[in-house]
Amino acid sequence: MPKNVLKKHFDIEADHISTLEGYDSINYKIETTSGTYVLKQYDNTASNKEMLLAENATLKVLSGLKAFDFPVALPNKKMEHLPEEDDALFRLLSFVEGEFLGDVEHTPTLLRSFGTFLGKIDNALLNFERSAISAKVTPWDLKHFHLSYNYLKYIPDAKQRSLV
Predict the structure, then answer these.
(1) Rounded to whole angstroms, how far apart are CA atoms 115 and 84?
(2) In a 10 Å sphere around its CB, with 0-12 CB exposed, 13-18 middle and 19+ buried, how is residue 35 labelled?
(3) pLDDT tens digits for 60-94?
(4) Can you say whether residue 87 is alpha, beta or left, with left for phi > 0 and alpha for psi between -120 and 50 degrees?
(5) Could you give the count of Cα atoms lying within 13 Å of 3 in the half-sphere of its Cβ?
């Protein structure tokens, strides 16, 4: 299905498609001769559409931080950012190269840089608000940590479990 969606909605021919991890979506890494993208597939619901529009607006604000790379939501051939196909919503994003924070050595320089990065994001979004984002409940949001309480049993070390 990703190849059909890419061709029909974005006029993109993929050289290679691989799957990526996802939580609320099915994600594909799309490699072409002209670049690399991420195609995300969601259930076509009003709440998902509202959330994705809010996320796109957030990415647009963050794009103003010129020193950093953020994904860009790319429009399709009809200049739509959320084309629909077979009861699904699709979103095409630019791909940001890099390594996962968990996979690199955590040096003081890296951690200081990361803190500065997060501070700049917070500052850029200080007066930005979207109700869909404010209302979203995820277990890893510290405001909703109680939702993760049942997972404590999966931390074998009692000291670590107590810390959490």
Answers:
(1) 38
(2) exposed
(3) 999 999 999 999 999 999 999 999 998 999 999 99
(4) left
(5) 6
H helices, E strands: number in the chain: 5, 6
CA distance 41 to 118: 27
Q: Provide DSSP, 95-129.
A: PPP---GGGS---HHHHHHHHHHHHHHHHHTTT--
Task: Round to whole Å and give the CA distance between 12 and 160.
Answer: 47
Write out the two tokens for 19: 């799957």
Look at residue 38 and tell me whether its pLDDT is greater than 80.
yes
Give helix 46-62 / helix 108-124 axis angle, nearest 10°.
110
